[in-house]
Amino acid sequence: MSNLGFRPEDVALPVGHFLAGKLVSGKADIVVTSPGNGHILAHLPEAGGDLVDEAAQTAARVQRQSGWADCAPRERAKILRRWADLVERNAMELARLETVCSTRPIAQTVGWDIPFLAEGIRFFSEYCDKVGGDVATTATNLLGMTVYEPYGVTGAIAPWNFPLVMASWKVVPALAAGNGTVLKPSEMTPFSVVRLAELAIEAGLPAGLFNVVQGSGIATGEAICRHPAIGKISFTGSTRTGIAVMKAAAESGPKPVTLELGGKSPQMVFDDIPSVDDVADRIFRAFTGNAGQVCVTGSRLIVQRGVAEALISALVARCGQVKALAPWDENSLYSPIISESQANHILALVQGSVHSGAQELVACKRMNTQTGGIFLSPGMVMVQNSECPLWHEEVFGPVLAIQVFDEDDQAFALAEHPVYGLAAGVHTASLPRAMRAIRTLKAGTVWVNRYGRSSDFVIPTGGFGGSGIGKDLGRQAFEANLRLKSVLMAAE
Ligand code: NDP
Predict the structure, then answer these.
(1) Whose Cα sits closest to atom 14 in ligand 1?
(2) Could you tell me the distance, in angstroms and rounded to a whole number, from the CA of residue 216 to the centre of ligand 1?
(3) Residue 2 has pLDDT above 90, yes or no
(4) Which of 184, 211, 302, 309 is most exposed, with minimal Cβ within 10 Å?
(5) 222-231 burial, b if ≥16 CB within 10 A, otherwise e?
(6) Which percentage of the chain shows pLDDT scores above 70?
């Protein structure tokens, strides 16, 4: 990789809300710092109820008056495709904005986040004119139909771990379906989505259809969930906050919610795997990608005794190769932790588990950097039993908890989690074992002999139980932004 490195101080940050196509400032109390060097990047204003109301009313008015919902849907598709083109044309600017305040290294924002974002816009643009209703089988003197219509305005609340990608998963299908939308990014990663919204207008999206409001979850997020003009909420974040979002949506509607929440996803490895090295690569990526700050992080390794020693030593070796470089260094591949408090939380969870009897194979500890970024090295812990906090609590950091099994039934029992059911991985050469995993694991996604989503949008993602409700990605995410109306016409 070359020529990707940059100086963070050279990046111009769009600081403020984005309302009716304009950047709007205000009393700026929220301090935004970079996890890459700890420097203060900006002071951010916070949208209270009044500003959220203005954003929602603007989106509703523009959605009604601009023809966005009423035009031939292919006209929407054209604008979305132009938006994707503009994202690609401005890829370097977007990538730098993303890298400067999030945990995403520049090689990855250039190589994955921005191409994935453009791909997502094109994916959902293709549904605009391809999802219609049905004609029902009524008596011949009646015409019965189902038609889809947009909600009007949707609310989107995004986390900090993949700011552009997460926001686009919510905003793009909502717009493609004919809605206006109000997005609140995380207060820790507020800049790149503003530039994304500006590019949407450049592509032809009516100004005011896609508004961004900045602020904390308690003030701004809650106001979005409770706003009467907002008909549907899409949220990604912790299970605790997801419950609060659902409660607010219920009390102010009720209105439907899509919730993509936490996880504690297992990776099962059987001793029939053809290559320990290949599986070690997958497992390592699955718990260290974005330094473990991914909802589907494969944070629990369930490994059969026959292969345990070889696999664990291959993983230990990989832990030693990680380098902490500032995210804007073109050679950076490993992410910082988003904040000091998150780093302390991760270390406290590990220390608590070790004090209660877990065996630390590789210590998760602070890494020294020349830039002053917040980095934790990957850690591996053999837990004594499933009561250990590291086995059941979401860490959201680069820590792998391990248990060894002998019989298949033990492995399947260990894979179950009392709360979460987001994703699971199974690594085996046995088709019957793979089939058993697909059929029996209580997880929204099961990966066989791989771990992680594909780099397109065709397969929906979402969790069972405490990991959420509804799906992002896929046709299902588009349809979730439409409501079904039933029509019955008498022919006389
Ligand atoms: P949160 O769930 O607290 O936040 C996610 C988003 O929701 C943020 O934009 C946040 O705002 C907002 N929010 C917070 N409270 C409310 C509320 N009452 N009503 C509406 N919106 C609200 O996650 P964190 O960012 O604090 O991360 C903590 C944990 O969440 C992680 O350790 C991890 O377990 C999980 N997480 C899961 C993710 C996933 O991909 N599934 C992604 C990120 C986190 P703000 O933060 O600006 O105040």
Answers:
(1) 217
(2) 10
(3) no
(4) 309
(5) bbbbbbebbb
(6) 100
CA distances from 168 to 278, 395, 407 (A): 32, 25, 43
Q: Which two tokens stand for residue 223?
A: 């106001």
pLDDT in tens, 363-400: 999 998 888 899 999 999 999 999 999 999 999 999 99
For the CA of 241, the nearest atom of ligand 1: 2
Shortest-distance Cα residue to atom 10 of ligand 1: 217
pLDDT digits (tens, 9 = 90+) for 406-434: 999 999 999 999 999 999 999 999 999 99
Q: How far is the CA of 277 from the centre of ligand 1 (A)?
A: 35
Place of tokens 């401005």: 90
| Most distant CA atoms of the chain, gap in Å | 80
Q: Best of 220, 234, 241, 258 to mutate for ligand 1, by most ligand atoms within 8 A of CB?
A: 241
| Distance in angstroms (rounded) separating the CA atoms of residues 155 and 52 | 10
User: pTM of the full predicted structure?
Assistant: 0.96
Taken in order of first residue, the domains within the chain and their CATH numbers are 8-261+467-488 (3.40.605.10), 266-456 (3.40.309.10)
Residue 72 is encoded by which pair of tokens?
């031939």
Q: What is the residue with the minimal CA distance to atom 29 of ligand 1?
A: 238
- Ligand 1 atom nearest the C-alpha of 187 is 47
Pocket of ligand 1 (CB under 6 A): 157-161, 184, 186-187, 216-218, 221-222, 225, 236-238, 241, 244-245, 260-262, 295, 394, 396
Q: What mean pLDDT is reported for the chain?
A: 97
In sequence order, the 6+-apart residues with CB closer than 8 A to the CB of 276 are 307, 310, 311, 314
* Distance from residue 161's CA to the centre of ligand 1 (Å): 10
Percent residues over pLDDT 90 in the chain: 97
Indicate which residue's Cα is closest to atom 32 of ligand 1: 396
The verdict on whether omega for the bond into residue 206 sits within 30 degrees of 0, i.e. cis, is no
Question: Tens of pLDDT along 265-295?
Answer: 999 999 999 999 999 999 999 999 999 999 9
The catalytic site residues sit at 260, 295
